[in-house]
Structure formats: structure tokens, C-alpha cells
Design goal:
The chain is mostly helical. About 70% of the residues lie in helices and about 5% in strands. A two-stranded antiparallel sheet has the order 1-2.
Length: about 230
């Protein structure tokens, strides 16, 4: 049985892991409203919409199309499936992928696997893309990750783990912010949380579900840091 107890802290790898996450967090917050982060924000929207699509497929539904817009919005058109599982899958799935990428960055082999899976997902989504923003995003990140992979394997510029970690941290932070902005600070009546509140028999409105999903997303982020330290111990 796996032991997830953190028995020791902090060796060189653990310190480097925490410091890198801290530095990436500061950089992301400092550049939050700049064009430099736009591709990474859109890739978070991509993972949000892809999570809706995955939930739809896993519940025997049909994905008719996926869109990601330059204003950081997106839409997944589905038919069938289990609606009450598809709705929360966007925000929670995006947070989960952020956690998975952060953990994958702790080891070169898992970083390679994560990059390979990410490339495969981008290629698959190209066939479902309904607008050129998403198509361009997929093509751009396929080229970007391919270049990073080649640099990792063929040169001394070995930054694949850091790129995967940056995307993971960016995704985790943006997911929490997006939940707060869309579901808590202002009520968007067409939001996933408002739709979920309409079909859920629980006495909880969209803001309430936004708060619950936000806490779960924050736990994903905190959990990824803790498990990362355990892996590196």
C-alpha cells in the first residue's frame, strides 16, 4: 500500500520544487493582465472545455463541437450524457489537470508522458474545434511542445519539466480565479454553476456551488504541492 505521509522536508529537490512554484506564481500574478499570458490562459480554457467533453464521452454522450474564444470564454456542445456530471467537469476537471501536470513535473519520465498526452489531446481536439481561435491554439501549442521536447532530447536546454510545471501552476491558479470571477464575485446566469443549481435537488444556488467548487479546486492545488513533496522526499 502506498504511503502518502510526508516523513521528511526539505531536501534540495523539495526546496527547488517549492521555490519554482513560488517563482512561477509571482511571475503569473505580475503578468496576469498582459498579452504574454494569453496563450496559457486560453490553454486553461481549452482544458476546461476538454473536461466537459471527456465527461460527456464517459457518460455515453456525443460531443458536437468545442470552441475557445479570444476573450477567454469557451463552449462545448454536447448531446446526451449525464448532464449533472458534465456541468461541474469543466471547472473541477481543469483543476484536476493542473494538479496532474504539477505532479508530472516532479520526474522527467512523467513529464515526458504528460507532454505526450497533452500533444495527443491537442491533436484530437483539432477534429472537434469549431472556430479558428481553438484551431490556432492547438496548432501553436503542438509546435511549442514539440520544440521544447526536441530541446530536451537533443540539446542541453532541458526545460520540459519546468514547462509542464508552469502550465500546471498556471492552470491551477486560473481555475481558482475563474471560479471566483464567474461564479462568486458576479453571478453569470448562464454559468455552469447556475445551470447545475437548477437541476440539483440540493438547496444551494450558483454562488454556493461556485464556492464549493472553488474550495475543491484549491484543495487540488494544495494537494498537488503536498503529494509533490512526498514524491520528492
Amino acid at each position: 500500500m502506498a504511503n502518502w505521509e510526508l516523513k521528511s522536508c526539505c531536501n534540495h529537490d523539495q526546496v527547488a520544487f517549492l521555490v519554482t512554484i513560488g517563482v512561477f506564481t509571482v511571475v503569473i500574478l505580475a503578468l496576469w493582465r498582459t498579452v504574454l499570458l494569453m496563450p496559457f490562459k486560453l490553454i486553461t480554457v481549452f482544458l476546461h472545455e476538454a473536461s466537459h467533453a471527456i465527461a460527456c464521452k464517459l457518460t455515453c454522450g456525443h460531443v458536437e463541437g468545442i470552441q475557445v474564444h479570444a476573450d477567454e470564454g469557451g463552449m462545448t456542445q454536447t448531446r446526451g450524457g449525464v448532464y449533472w456530471l458534465i456541468l461541474p467537469a469543466g471547472y473541477l476537471g481543469s483543476s484536476f489537470w493542473g494538479m496532474a501536470l504539477i505532479l508530472a513535473s516532479t520526474n522527467l519520465l512523467t513529464a515526458r508522458i504528460a507532454a505526450g498526452c497533452f500533444l495527443l489531446a491537442l491533436v484530437v481536439v483539432l477534429f472537434y474545434a469549431k472556430n479558428w481561435t481553438l484551431r490556432g491554439l492547438c496548432i501553436g501549442f503542438i509546435i511549442f511542445l514539440a520544440i521544447i521536447w526536441l530541446l530536451q532530447e537533443k540539446t542541453t536546454v532541458r526545460i520540459l519539466r519546468y514547462v509542464i510545471l508552469f502550465i500546471g501552476v498556471m492552470n491551477s491558479l486560473f481555475s481558482v480565479y475563474d471560479i471566483y470571477d464567474d461564479l462568486i464575485s458576479r453571478r453569470v446566469h448562464s454559468s455552469d454553476a447556475e445551470k447545475f443549481a437548477e437541476i440539483c435537488p440540493c438547496p444551494c444556488n450558483g454562488v454556493g456551488w461556485g464556492f464549493i467548487w472553488g474550495m475543491i479546486s484549491f484543495l487540488f492545488l494544495a494537494g498537488s504541492m503536498y503529494i509533490g513533496l512526498v514524491i520528492l522526499s
